[in-house]
UniProtKB/TrEMBL annotation:
The gene is fur. It holds the Pfam family FUR. This is Ferric uptake regulation protein. Homodimer. Its cofactor is Mn(2+); Fe(2+). InterPro entries: FUR, Fur_C, WH-like_DNA-bd_sf, WH_DNA-bd_sf. Fe cation binds at H93, D95, E114, H131. It comes from Algicella marina. Belongs to the Fur family.
Amino acid sequence: MTDIEKRAQEMEEALRADGVRLTRQRSALLQVLAESGDHPDANELHRRAQAVDESVSLATVYRTLTVLEDQGVIHRHAFEGGGARFEAADMPHHDHLIDVETGDVVEFRSDKIEQLQAEIAREYGYELVHHKLELYCRKTSGNGS
Ligand SMILES: [Zn+2]
């Protein structure tokens, strides 16, 4: 079984755990969600799910996303400058860089930042439990040097 199939199956189980019937439409949405690595919003997920099954409605997309989020199998990101964006929750920890002009989301991970955050929490007498870091960026012209 591929990672994508495994992810889709986890999402199916999450729906079942919440007593939500796995319809053809929902199955199309799960497939699309499991495949997407680019943090799509609900409209984009709707568009992609419709490419698999025309009869998927936006209401189904919203309702299903809510259930999946409640069950902890997807994460909802409220990045500035747009609607909520979604991604599978089984990804290894990463932070996000958001292109303020295009809305593109780039994933990154920095051990330096991870350590620094833990240190800051410790300095204040805390143990770091979890964090979210969002960098809002504009692309530099040229090759970035
Ligand atoms: Zn991400």
